[in-house]
Every structure is written in structure tokens, then in C-alpha cells.
Amino acid sequence: MLERLAPPPQPVDAPPPKARPWKLLLLACFALAGVSLLLPSVPTYDPWAWIIWGREVAQGDLVTTTGPSWKPLPVIFTTPFSLAGDDGAPLLWLTVARAGGILAFALAFRLGARLAGPFAGIIAASSLFLADEFIRNFFRGNSEGILVALCLWALERHLDGRRRDAFLLGIGAALLRPEVWPFIALYGLYLLIAERKLSTVLLVGGGGLSLILLWFVPEYIGSGDFLRAANRARQPNPDSAAFAAHPFIEVFNRSASVLSLPVYIGGLIAFVVALVRRDGLYLTMAAIGTVLMVAVAGMTQAGFAGNLRYVALPAALVCVLAGAGWVWLVRATNKRAGTVAAAALAVVIAAASAPFVIDDVRELDEGWWRIDQEAQLYGTVPEAIEAAGGREKLLACGTVYTGAFQTQAVAWYMHLHEMESEIFAFPPGTTIAPNYSALSKDPRFPTIAKTRKWVIGSSCAR
């Protein structure tokens, strides 16, 4: 399969094929991400942890005993970003996460256009844009946008003959998700066989070693357990697919809503055409997407979280294939029945897809409301701390308590380790709780300050 996926062999001493331009594209993505900071811009739970860990790495005081699973790539960014302070560091990470998501759209278009022309690219990018929770996730700082961008970019660079670039981009993706590890290992083996150079051995060996070191050594330094990330991932939230009667099947059931029916049909058309043509590129993309889905489902069966955002990468591959599938169908109709029939088919496809698009746009609107509400809550933590007299006053009373999903934001602004922002409240101490929570009404912690979103209580107020 890799041989079919490989670019055509070049004559001896021939220059490599011209690669797609990327520098201006990357700059434009970061520029758009920077402009997006004018909109509600506050990280969500996992990104807050990466931002905290970046500050702790910079200070030589890393603690990872609580919070989400360790992810190396975000912390590579958030460590230098920590120098920008309480307000700057979160915004810098959001810029990177959003730039990754925007780049994912651009690369979905470029790959779709490469497969079957610009209309296929438009369908691919639009399908990814409308995918459930994709924008909501990367807009709040989650890493799925970066993951999709890195993988699609790696595929493009491979097709351009830049295999080493593809490997390095794959290493970046493998620093985000463990499901990518087998693929980058196979690609590294492919490189070793294809190039048989010392420099390739060093590249592949160095990449593999970096994965091991960056995933496991910081985790051991921070928690004393090399496998703390894996253990944490097997402590999912109560609504996780891992608690279903059949977790493996439940992952597929829940993931079905990520893309709309026309996207799945387009992807199926592309797969069937690829089978008939024995096209290695499309079959490889379909195989990778399938293996990734099975991997997520299998890990969920084994007790891992199985969050919906984990299927973003296979969904993106389906989006690219869907663009090609629908364009191929219209072209085949044009070839066999003429332009009028092809145009009529295109109109029918668009009309049939319209209700699904409308539903997806409504989902985007709801997602935006949730982004705004979360930003209003997490973004006003500094206001609550100041209203209660400041960090030193609050810490003087004892332990700081907050809600289960607010621990990271409170720890960041209070300059605490994650484990020092607790959820099971016992005096003496201070509560910084959302005004809708039961903790905000706990009589053991009389109210000392209120803001629009927060109630601050203290056992020392008695």
C-alpha cells in the first residue's frame, strides 16, 4: 500500500517535484487566528492544564499528579509562552490551537482539490467546517485542529516527495495522540527501507527516541509514574462511552453524528471507485481512517475515555474522500449522459444536502453559544480573585476549593499546582465557585465577595 501511495520514482539526479507552497499559508492561518482573539478567547479544561504545566516546566517545578493526560506537544509551546504572564500565555496557546484548526480547513481543501479538483476541495473543507464540535474544540484550545492539520500536511508532503518532512510532521502528530504511534512507526520503517541512508537512520531513530522521552520522562518527573497519563485516561467522565454496555459499539454510535449523511455517502462513493480503480492513495486514506476509528473504539472498550473529539482525524479523512466521491460521480454522469444530466445531478445533490447543512449550521450556532458562556465563566476568574481581596488574602485562609471543571482555571490565576485547587471542600479554606453551583451556597464558607459569575466564600469570615 505504501508503494502505491509513494510518489512516482524520479530519474537519477533529477530534482524533487515541486512542493505545494506553505509558508504564506501558515502565516495567513496565524494571522486569522490572531484576529480571532477579538472574539471570546478563553481555554477550556485540558488546555488550562497544558498552560499550567508550561509554567511549571519553566519554573523547574512540574507536577502532573492530577488533571488530564500529559501531552508533550502543547507543553513545548506553553513553556516559553508562560513568560507572557497570566493573560498572555493563554492567548498565545489559543492562537496556536486556532491556527492549527484553520490550517486543517486549508489542507482539507488542498487535498480534496488534488484528488478531484477545486469543487472536491470545497466539499472537503466545508464538510470539515460543519463537522460536529470540530470548531468548538480547537477554538477553546483543544489540540484536535493541530492534529488534523499535521496529519493532512504530512500526507501532502509525502505526495510531494518530501518524505522527511512528512515523517517530522507525523512525529508532531504522535506527540498529541497515541493512536498515531503505529502509523509513524510504519512510516519510519518505510523511510529506512526506501532511502537506506545514515541520515535517515538518525532521523527515524531520533524521532522515535524523542517520542519516548517526551511522553514518559516529564510524566515521571511530575508524578513519579511513567504511565500516569494512561492511568488518567482510564478514569473517564461519567457520561463517557466507556461506561456503556458495549463501549466499542457505542463509540461508533456516538461518532455517527460527527458528519452528516451526504458526507458519509460521498466517502463511500470514493471508496468504491478506489476499489474499482485499485487506487492506493484513496484506499490508504480509507484504511487509515478505519484503523483509527477501530483504535479509538478498542481503547474505549479497554476503559479509556473515548471522547467524541478523538475521532476528528478519521472524520477529516472522510471529508476529503467525500469531496472526491461526489465530484467523481458528477464527472462520470457527464461522461456517460452529458452535461445537462450532470448539472441536474449536481442540483439534486445540493438540494438533498441542504437540510443536513442547515442542521449543521444550527449546531455551530449552539456551539458558539457554549464557547461564549464558557469564556465568560473562565475569563472572569481574575475578577473574582480581585473582588475577594487578592490571591494572598485567599490563600491565607487555607485550601482553595472550586468546581470540578474549574480547577485548572482557578489554579492558573491563583498560581497554584493543579492538585492545590481542590473540589471536595472542608474548612479551613476558601471557595471560588460558579454562582450556579452548590458549593457557592455552602454555609461552612460564608460569602465574602460576589461577581456576575462567581461567589467567593471563606471559612475565615466567621
From TrEMBL:
Record flagged with keyword Transmembrane: yes
Residue intervals passing through the bilayer: 20-39, 91-109, 115-131, 167-193, 200-217, 256-276, 283-304, 310-330, 337-358
Q: Which UniProt keywords apply?
A: Membrane, Transmembrane, Transmembrane helix
Question: Superkingdom of this entry's organism?
Answer: Bacteria
**What start-end ranges are recorded for coiled-coil regions in this protein?**
none
Name of the protein in its database record: Dolichyl-phosphate-mannose-protein mannosyltransferase
Please tell me the species this chain comes from: Solirubrobacter pauli
Query: What does the organism's lineage look like at the top?
Result: Bacteria, Bacillati, Actinomycetota, Thermoleophilia, Solirubrobacterales
